[in-house]
Amino acid sequence: MSRTTTRFLTFVSGVGMIVFSALTIQHFFAANYPTSIFEGSFCDINSFFNCDSSANSAISAIAGVPIGWFGLMLGGLVALGAVFQSSALERTNRSLSALNVVGVVTLLLYSVVVLGSLCLLCSGYYVFSFLALYLYWKGAQPEQGYSRKTLSWMDPSLIHLAAFGAVTLGGAWGVWEYHDARKVGQSGGVASRVVSQFYGLPAVAWPSEISPYWTVRSTENFEDAPIQVVEYGDPLCIDCRVLWEQLAELKDEFAGQINIAFQFFPLEAVCNDVVEKDKHPGACEASYMLAADLEHFPERLDEIFTNMRAAEAPEWRADFAARYGLEGAADDPELCDVVDRLIRTGAEYEKTHEDFAHGIRSTPTMIINNRMLIGTLPKEQLRAIFQALVDEYERGSDAFMESWVRN
Questions:
Q1: 3-state class of 377 per DSSP?
Q2: CB neighbours of 152 closer than 8 A, spacing ≥ 6?
Q3: SS3 for 47?
Q4: Is the pLDDT of residue 401 over 70?
Q5: What backbone torsions phi and psi does residue 66 show, to the nearest 5 degrees?
Q6: Residue (of 177, 305, 289) closest to 233 by Cα position
Q7: Between 239 and 115, where is the model more confident?
Q8: How many structural domains compose the chain?
Q9: Do 238 and 199 form a contact (C-beta atoms < 8 A)?
Q10: Chain-centre distance for alpha carbon 307
Q11: 37 pLDDT exceeds 70?
């Protein structure tokens, strides 16, 4: 490979690192701090190829700075080194690229093993990181005091390294400030905007059959609580688990004021023909087992969500069934009929996307006080909506604004 070709490919790898880092940063803020209930995340193909898992995880940011920022800066340095040839800069990039790949492998293993998912945007960065390292190895030349085997991997220019560190940390401070502002904004102006958008949504009817499987019960009659939530959910859906974690906190804040009915909607073709999605193998079986124990439904659902990755395995579900005497639930015609009826209520809503025939097309989908929300919101925004509903319930619908202006 000629030196010119190596430089060109190195430049391409640097630009690729920049692009995918920028996309991960964009997704981080879109997933964690949407400015509208109409914003949605992307690249979530199924429970494994899922960027939201990474964006919401503990590894998504370092001290409040999205890790994509550090990848973006390194990509810029790699591209810069390909344009402006310098032995000292190349040694620095070579060393940083080696450390970067160590970090990439660590993140990849954490994502696959711990989170049980893989972000396609992160994967793009991984590919270009490996390419950059390969090119530095391929194009490296023995330098004084080093054999070709060592290739001076850990001999960066201290001046270049210090300059890179200063620029990166200086920019990181700005990113942290922006991150902090977005976080604060969720409970201020953004929350107010989201509440306004929520009240502007068209009213929808309750499903013809509201599930008897409630995760939170404050009143005997479903519609007597200030906050009424019908959640179309899938017990093996990663985003449903995110919502479950949020509601676990909010149900304590709004104790005695909220009812939540879990409307089974497993995204598996074995039992769901309302939407053409076959994303979560085993979700139908899990739904049948949960339906078999109405009395302990909240605790059983909590256990599955707590052990979601393990619950994806048939062996875990078999053990779960044996522990609670739920064997044969999937073969019980009455249970199958209950779950099937709840699933089919999803076909009662007008289509919300041109690619799907019916309004309930994904999980989680919530009907909150007769308004439909598809997907998840930051907890602060969901809290703001719940608080607005409680305020409306306590004050009545005739609340008004009064102001006096004196000229």
A1: coil
A2: 91, 94, 140, 143, 146
A3: coil
A4: no
A5: -55, 135
A6: 305
A7: 239
A8: 2
A9: no
A10: 17
A11: no
Residue indicated by tokens 């919530």: 366
Please, what is the angle between helix 3-32 and helix 120-139, to 10°?
160
89: CATH: 1.20.1440.130
CATH of the domain at 224: 3.40.30.10
Phi, psi of 200 (to 5 degrees): -85, -5
| Six-digit token string for 157 | 């220019």
DSSP string, 69-87: HHHHHHHHHHHHHHHS--H
Q: Which segments of 290-368 are extended strands (E)?
A: 365-368
Task: Tell me: do 151 and 203 sit in the same domain.
Answer: no
Terminal alpha carbon distance of the chain = 80
**Which residue, 49, 381, 46, 42, is CA-closest to 234?**
46
Token reading at 14: 């640097």
Per DSSP, helices labelled H in 234-313 are: 238-253, 283-291, 297-306, 308-311
- Interacting residues of 85 by C-beta distance below 8 A, sequence separation 6+: 7
- Domain presence at residue 406: no
Say how many C-beta atoms besides its own lie within 10 A of residue 212's C-beta: 13
Interior angle at CA 257, CA 252 and CA 259, nearest 5: 90
Domain shared by 273 and 379, yes or no: yes
- The pairing of strands 227-233 and 258-264 is parallel
CA pair distance 301, 348, nearest whole angstrom: 25
Q: pLDDT tens for residues 189-212?
A: 677 788 888 999 999 999 999 999
Based on the fold, state whether residues 170 and 244 are members of the same structural domain. Answer: no
- On whether residue 401 sits in a domain, the answer given is no
Listed residue (32, 52, 66, 57) closest to 110, CA to CA: 57
Domain with 70, as residue range(s), is 3-186
Q: What residue has token string 């992307």?
A: 42
Q: At residue 94, what are phi and psi to the nearest 5 degrees?
A: -60, -45
Burial class for 2, CB neighbours closer than 10 Å (0-12, 13-18, 19+): exposed
Residue 402 is classified by DSSP as -
The pTM (predicted TM-score) of the whole model is 0.68
Task: Please state, in angstroms and rounded to a whole number, the distance separating the CA atoms of residues 373 and 364.
Answer: 9
> Rounded to whole angstroms, how far apart are CA atoms 165 and 154?
16
